[in-house]
Write a structure and sequence with these properties.
CATH topology of the largest domain: Rossmann fold
Mean pLDDT: 97
CATH architecture of the largest domain: 3-Layer(aba) Sandwich
Number of strands: 12
Strand content: 15-25%
Order of helices and strands: HHHHHEEEHEHEHHEHEEHHEEHEHEHHHH
Largest sheet: 7 strands, mixed
Number of domains: 2
Bound molecules: NADPH dihydro-nicotinamide-adenine-dinucleotide phosphate
Number of helices: 18
Distance between the termini: 27 Å
Structural class: alpha/beta
Low-confidence stretches: none
Length: 445
C-alpha cells in the first residue's frame, strides 16, 4: 500500500474495531489507489478516501417475530447507506446467521465501486439481518420479512435507497417485503425494491442476471487472451441464485460444468451438471445439494468436501466471502485453471488472489464480474419509471453490452495505470474515479 494511504487505513481499522471483512475490502481498494492519489492531489486534499470509507448512514434495528409454536425471537436488522454520490443507495439484503455490521459494511463498500462501474446512476448500500431462514416454514419467513419491513420502510424509497436480494433473500422474500411496504405506505412504488416477481413490477433477466453477467465477463477475459469458454471444464461453488444461472449460461456457451456445492458439501458430475434437476432440487424443493446426487447416477456427493479440488479450466466462486483460500488457489493452478471470476462478493482471500496473479491466471474481481445483477436492477428501475417491460432478448443484450463495457473500462484503466491485465486494480481505480469526481463536484457534504 502507498505510504500516504497507510495511516488512513490504520485509522479506518481503529475506528471500526473487529470488522475484519470490512477492513479486508477497504485494504484491497486502497492497495490500488496509490497512483491515483499521486495523479490527483485534490483527492487527498479533500479527504475523499477518508470520506468514501465512512458510511453516510448506518441503521440498526430490532426485528421481533414469532415462530409457528408461538415462541418469540429477536433478530438484528441493519441497513448501511454507504455512498450516494452517483445516485440513491442500491444494494441487496442478506438474511444469514453470520450477518453482522462488519459484513454489511464490507458489502456496502464493495457496492459503491461496483455500481459506479456499471455506469448507472446508483450509489452503494447494503443491508440484512442475522436471521437464519434454513429450516423455517414459509409463514415464519413471511412474518420475519414483515417485521423487518416495519422498520426498514422509513429509510428506503425510489429516490433514497433501493434494496434487492442477496444470500437468503430471493423473489419470494422480496414479495413479502414489498407487500408489507405497500401496505404500510399506502403507495405502489415499484421502484423501491428490485428483483421483484414478473407479475408485480419485476424485470425479465433480473433473476438470471448475476450468473449470466459473470459468464459474459469470463468470456471477455478469455477473448482478451485469444481464447473462449467453448469446450472448457468449469467448476462453480454454491447452488443459489448466482451459481445456478452461471451454470446455465456457461453450458449454453459450450462449457461443461462438472461440480457445484452448498454449505453441506459438493456434487461432482463428470457428465455435466443437469440444469433441470439442479433447479428442481434447489429452487423448487429448496433441498440440500446431496438430493441432486441421489437422483443422478453419474454424480457423487462429497460431504464437507472442497469443490476446488475438482480439476477445471475456469473456476466461478458463487457462494460467499473468503470461500476460496490460498490452498485452493494453488490446487486450481496446479490443475490447469486459466480463469477465475467472482460471482460472489469477495469469495477469494487476498493471498489466493496473489497466487492467481503470480500464475498469470485471468482474474475477474466481484465488483466487476458480478455487477450484472445490480446493472439489471437498474434496468428494472428504468422499466418501472417508464411503465414499460422489455423482452428477455433485449434485456439480455443490454446486460451483455454492460458486462463488456465494465470489462473494457477495467482493462483500459489497468493499462493506463501501468498494471496491464490486472483487473483488480482496473476495477478499483475506475470505480473510485467515477465516485471521486462526483464527490469533488458536490463540495464538502
Ligand atoms: P443464495 O442464497 O441464492 O445462494 C447462496 C449459496 O451459497 C447457497 O448455495 C449457499 O449454500 C451457499 N453459501 C452461503 N453461505 C455459505 C457459507 N457460509 N458457506 C458455504 N456456502 C455458503 O445467494 P446468492 O446466489 O444470491 O448470492 C451468492 C453470492 O453472490 C453472495 O456473495 C452474494 O453477495 C453475491 N451476489 C449476489 C447477487 C444477486 O443478484 N443475488 C448480486 C451480486 C453478488 P446453503 O444453502 O447451504 O447455505
Amino acid at each position: 500500500m502507498d505510504e500516504k494511504l497507510e495511516p488512513i487505513f490504520d485509522d479506518i481499522v481503529r475506528r471500526n474495531p473487529g470488522e475484519q471483512e470490512f477492513h479486508q475490502a477497504v485494504r484491497e481498494v486502497l492497495e490500488s489507489l496509490g497512483p491515483v492519489i499521486a495523479k490527483h492531489p485534490e483527492y487527498a486534499e479533500r479527504k475523499i478516501i477518508q470520506r468514501i470509507s465512512e458510511p453516510e448512514r448506518q441503521i440498526i434495528f430490532r426485528v421481533p417475530w414469532q415462530d409457528d409454536s408461538g415462541e418469540v425471537h429477536i433478530n438484528r436488522g441493519m441497513r448501511v447507506g454507504f455512498n450516494s454520490a452517483l445516485g440513491p443507495y442500491k444494494g441487496g439484503l442478506r438474511f444469514h446467521p453470520s450477518v453482522n455490521l462488519g459484513i454489511v459494511k464490507f458489502l456496502g463498500f464493495e457496492q459503491i465501486f461496483k455500481n459506479a462501474l456499471t455506469g448507472m446512476p446508483i450509489g452503494g448500500g447494503k443491508g440484512g439481518a442475522n436471521f437464519d431462514p434454513k429450516g423455517r416454514s414459509d409463514d415464519e419467513i413471511m412474518r420475519f420479512c414483515q417485521s423487518f419491513m416495519l422498520e426498514l420502510y422509513r429509510h428506503i424509497g425510489e429516490y433514497t435507497d433501493i434494496p434487492a436480494g442477496d444470500i437468503g433473500v430471493g423473489s419470494r422474500e422480496l414479495g413479502w417485503l414489498f407487500g408489507q411496504y405497500k401496505r404500510i405506505t399506502n403507495r405502489y412504488e415499484s421502484a423501491t425494491l428490485t428483483g421483484k416477481g414478473l407479475e408485480w413490477g419485476g424485470a425479465l433477466v433480473r433473476r438470471e442476471a448475476t450468473g449470466y453477467g459473470t459468464v459474459f465477463f469470463v468470456e471477455e477475459m478469455l477473448a482478451a487472451r485469444g481464447t473462449s469458454l467453448d469446450g472448457r471444464t468449469v467448476v462453480v461453488s454454491g447452488s443459489g441464485n448466482v451459481a445456478i444461472y452461471a451454470i446455465q449460461k456457461a453450458v449454453a456457451r459450450g462449457a461443461k460444468v462438472v461440480a457445484c456445492s452448498d454449505s453441506s458439501g459438493f456434487v461432482h458430475d463428470p457428465d455435466g451438471i443437469e440444469f433441470e434437476l439442479l433447479t428442481q432440487v434447489k429452487e423448487v424443493e429448496r433441498a440440500r445439494i446431496s438430493a441432486y446426487a441421489e437422483r443422478r447416477p453419474s454424480a457423487r456427493f462429497v460431504p464437507q468436501g472442497v469443490v476446488w479440488d475438482i480439476p477445471c479450466h475456469v473456476a466461478l466462486p458463487c457462494a460467499t466471502q473468503n470461500e476460496l483460500t490460498r490452498r485452493d488457489a494453488i490446487t486450481l493452478v496446479e490443475n490447469g485453471c486459466i480463469a477465475v471470476a467472482e460471482g460472489a462478493n469477495m469469495p477469494t482471500t487476498p493471498d489466493a488472489v496473489r497466487v492467481f496473479e503470480e500464475a498469470g491466471v485471468a482474474f475477474g474481481p466481484g465488483k466487476a464480474a458480478n455487477a450484472g445483477g445490480v446493472a439489471t436492477s437498474a434496468l428494472e428501475m428504468q422499466q418501472n419509471a417508464s411503465r414499460d417491460s422489455w423482452s428477455f432478448e433485449f434485456t439480455e443484450g443490454r446486460l451483455a453490452e454492460i458486462m463488456k463495457s465494465i470489462h473494457d473500462v477495467c482493462h483500459e484503466t489497468a493499462d493506463k495505470y501501468g498494471a496491464p491485465g490486472n483487473l483488480v486494480r482496473g476495477a478499483n481505480i475506475a470505480g473510485f474515479e467515477r465516485v471521486a469526481r462526483a464527490m469533488v463536484a458536490f463540495g464538502l457534504v
